């Protein structure tokens, strides 16, 4: 009854509001991230000059208790502006007056809250899913719209342990890891009748594999929550690595517009299938992705600020605030230009397709 009630409510919400829902969710991720910084800054009594959602010109602002709360035009991020964050300040409640460990906590709080939100969403997704709990045991293959029991060296009842040396945490790993290889070939480690077998350069169409499913129980839901979370973390790190090494190109990267479009499409599909676990799972991946990405040592991001704080922790004294501020300012300009380019690309794709 609870699942039917949830499906009925979601179906009603998604009837005309898939894009609005996607925009609201993206906004929720940003707000959650900035609230992480905001709450810990308040906890450590740091003076906050502005709490902003969005970037660019102000659409709305209100000042309360010496803090300006604002909504800005471009929905591509947000920020918490703290006294003494990018310059020296003599205010006793300035960011630069706090201990190094306190500043580290404030800086990483936003990303960690995003990751925690993602993990919670993974659990919700697993709990409401209508599908069976997946496994890494091969059930068969769909080749030319026909199901067969063996293909490319794999056989029915084989357990896939690794692909290209990477462990299979969750059944979705099978599809992701097979899809990473442009030539369609992969080294696969399997277990067959208690024996480990290595398949070299096996050619398996990415979505041809069908895995066994089992009925969902409280135990499998908990296990799958941890498995999917581990899988998501690994997928994000591998995607970042593939982007850096050139395996993915600029056209493969999406910004807020592309993300909203993808979420809205998945939401519409979820409404049709009356199974909203896929939509919530995608939201979880986006939230974790934003958390992980923000921890990368890139200037202007939380990870860039964390990098300078770790240097201070090792040296015993901070880097010159003017030099650090300049690095972050340059990084911010580059990031904003990149985000604008990606946004225009996403809009172009929506208009012309492809």
Topology summary:
Elements: H1 2-43, E1 48-64, E2 67-82, H2 100-128, E3 133-143, E4 146-148, E5 150-151, E6 154-155, E7 159-163, E8 166-167, H3 171-179, E9 185-192, E10 195-203, E11 209-214, H4 218-244, H5 256-273, H6 277-294, H7 302-315, H8 321-352
Antiparallel strand pairs: 1-2, 3-4, 3-11, 5-6, 7-8, 7-9, 9-10
Helix pairs in contact: 1-2, 1-5, 2-4, 2-6, 2-7, 4-6, 5-6, 5-8
Instruction: Figure out the total of helices.
Output: 8
| Arrangement of strands in the largest sheet | 8-7-9-10
DSSP E strands, number:
11
Distance between the termini: 42 Å
Q: Return the structural class.
A: alpha+beta
Question: How would you characterize the largest beta sheet?
Answer: 4 strands, antiparallel
Instruction: Please state the overall shape, judged from the principal axes of the Cα atoms.
Output: elongated
Estimated share of beta-strand residues: 15-25%
As residue ranges, the low-confidence spans are none
Helix content: 40-55%
